[in-house]
């Protein structure tokens, strides 16, 4: 059974997590990561959770190795590794938020009384995060066929040209997606100045209170 | 402001998409360069990020061509950073966006379609962007970051944040690299977008 949370709960979980990973000791971050894994699993998100957990295990292993190393470039790599481990729970939470349909997200955020324009930009921005990755992967398939992919080391010798071949199709696709989204929103009457209704029911349910209470208990244990 | 010069829903959608693209480009370039030059010249990384993200900004700015695009982009980026645990960046980026908009303010409206003015506005925004890490240290203090970074990295960050020479170098480098990136971006814009009629 999949549990569906209110988008405001999901947003709150991301916000709290982003602060928690700053304050938690490095030896406690794994508890937050495990909680986020459980949080995603109850929402029916299985494969990404597995990937996140494997990545977390790899980063932990790498951290152990890097801790034995010296300074210089290794220190910078350790810094990136630290960031990766700390921000993984935030990414997991954001991944869950990124799956919320735009209409539902806008309806939920509208209750927070944000300016409407900003709200639209923000909702599109969250929703577009996973789309970028998919578009980028599709572009790289074509780029590899033409021998201009940045994954090929020979192209690293011409970084500007490789960047051009990577970013231009992405920008073109982004503009097209933006036009399609704008047309779709206009057809649905987004420009109408009157009050908006939504097919999505926006209300806190028992599952929202339970997850927030469980998270509060975990954070109390962590700190 | 009349309807033609005011941001419309389609503009907000475009800004939302391009804001996350700018964030992604900056994050990827930053992640690649940190192990390479992070130890020796961490404050210069922002300049390289801005060099590469200039094309994304310019495409967005030329497509929207209205007042407020840079400000909304800054606020959305600030909100993303807020979600990443640094709410200070929302205020900071909003301020940076306002300064960028100030560069674009004077004119009859055609200035929003001029690559030079938009490049200058993004370069001013870029100066602030380059100072982001240092400002986080000034406001929160090293205590806030001590749990986040190992002692070695934190010492280096504090040195860079409080060294006047590095602050000046960071500002100048971010400004110069953004302009350089805009020059590169202008060439690509002409080659791919303006010639094709995607942007007029």
TrEMBL record, chain A:
Question: InterPro entries attached here?
Answer: ABC/ECF_trnsptr_transmembrane (IPR003339), ECF_transporter_component (IPR051611)
Q: How does it sit in the membrane?
A: Multi-pass membrane protein
Q: Where in the cell is it found?
A: Membrane
Q: Which keywords appear in this protein's UniProt record, sorted alphabetically?
A: Cell membrane, Membrane, Transmembrane, Transmembrane helix
Its principal location? membrane
Per the UniProt record, which residue ranges are transmembrane?
12-39, 45-67
Checking PANTHER family in the record gives: SLL0384 PROTEIN
- What protein is this chain from? Energy-coupling factor transporter transmembrane protein EcfT
UniProtKB/TrEMBL annotation, chain B:
Return the Pfam families for the record. Trep_Strep
Which residue spans traverse the membrane?
12-33, 39-61, 68-84, 90-108, 120-140, 160-185
What is this protein identified as?
MptD family putative ECF transporter S component
Q: Which InterPro entries match?
A: CHP02185_IM
What's the domain of life for this entry? Answer: Bacteria
- For this UniProt record, give its keywords in alphabetical order, as a comma-separated list: Membrane, Transmembrane, Transmembrane helix
Q: What is the lineage of its organism?
A: Bacteria, Bacillati, Bacillota, Bacilli, Bacillales
């Amino acid at each position: 059974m999949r549990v569906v949370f209110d988008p405001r709960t999901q947003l709150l979980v991301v916000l709290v997590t982003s602060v928690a990973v700053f304050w938690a000791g490095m030896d406690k971050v794994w508890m937050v990561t495990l909680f986020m894994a459980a949080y995603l699993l109850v929402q029916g998100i299985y494969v990404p959770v597995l990937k996140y957990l494997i990545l977390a295990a790899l980063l932990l292993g790498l951290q152990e190795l890097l801790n034995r190393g010296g300074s210089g470039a290794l220190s910078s790599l350790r810094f990136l590794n630290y960031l990766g481990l700390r921000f993984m729970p935030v990414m997991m939470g954001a991944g869950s938020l990124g799956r919320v349909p735009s209409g539902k997200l806008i309806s939920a955020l509208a209750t927070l009384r944000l300016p409407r324009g900003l709200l639209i930009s923000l909702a599109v921005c969250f929703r577009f995060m996973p789309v970028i990755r998919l578009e980028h992967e599709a572009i790289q398939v074509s780029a590899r066929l033409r021998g201009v992919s940045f994954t090929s080391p020979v192209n690293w010798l011409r970084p500007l040209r490789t960047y051009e071949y990577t970013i231009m199709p992405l920008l073109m696709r982004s503009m097209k997606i933006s036009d399609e989204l704008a047309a779709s929103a206009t057809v649905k009457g987004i420009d109408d100045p009157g009050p908006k209704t939504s097919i999505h029911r926006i209300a806190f349910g028992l599952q929202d209170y339970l997850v927030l209470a469980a998270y509060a208990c975990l954070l109390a244990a962590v700190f | 402001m009349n309807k033609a010069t005011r941001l419309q829903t389609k503009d907000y959608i475009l800004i939302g998409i391009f804001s996350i693209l700018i964030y992604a480009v900056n994050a990827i370039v930053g992640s690649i360069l940190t192990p390479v030059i992070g130890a020796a010249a961490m404050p210069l990384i922002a300049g390289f990020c801005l060099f590469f993200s200039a094309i994304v900004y310019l495409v967005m700015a030329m497509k929207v061509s209205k007042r407020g695009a840079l400000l909304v982009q800054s606020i959305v980026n600030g909100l993303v950073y807020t979600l990443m645990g640094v709410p200070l960046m929302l205020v900071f980026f909003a301020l940076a966006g306002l300064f960028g908009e100030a560069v674009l303010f004077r004119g009859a409206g055609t200035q929003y379609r001029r690559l030079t003015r938009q490049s200058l506005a993004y370069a001013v925004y870029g100066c602030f962007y380059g100072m982001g890490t240092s400002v986080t240290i000034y406001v929160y203090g090293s205590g806030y970051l001590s749990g986040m970074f190992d002692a070695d990295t934190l010492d280096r960050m504090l040195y860079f944040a409080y060294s006047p020479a590095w602050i000046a170098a960071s500002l100048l480098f971010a400004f110069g690299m953004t302009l350089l990136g805009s020059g590169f971006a202008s060439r690509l814009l002409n080659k791919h977008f303006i010639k094709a009629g995607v942007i007029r």
